[in-house]
Design goal:
Helices cover 0% and strands 60% of the residues. It has 92 residues and is mainly β.
Length: 92
């Protein structure tokens, strides 16, 4: 079981009309617990194979909007969750 929560703070640089560039930091906490069984199928109780940890990171990214509502983003950085992210951005 993994349960995580945190916050991201970004500073946005707007150099071009449809291009949103940004940089920021991430801080959070991930609760992690894994139940394990012995190789013979008997339950030896709860064995914690992964520790919970503080999640932190830095990142930079850019979003380009093709229309007023739809765009794409790419994000680079370091955190306990990802190093590279790409995806779709929607503006409401």
């Amino acid at each position: 079981m993994n349960i995580g929560f945190g916050a991201r703070v970004m500073y946005h640089f707007n150099f071009l009309e449809n291009l949103d560039t940004y940089a920021g930091v991430t801080l959070g906490y991930v609760y992690q617990k894994v139940n394990a069984e012995g190789s013979n199928g008997l339950d030896y109780g709860e064995i914690v194979k992964g520790d919970s940890f503080i999640l932190w990171g830095i990142n930079t990214g850019a979003r380009f909007f093709f229309t007023d509502l739809i765009g794409a983003y790419v994000e680079l950085g370091y955190s306990g969750l990802q190093f590279v992210g790409i995806g779709l951005s929607l503006k409401f």
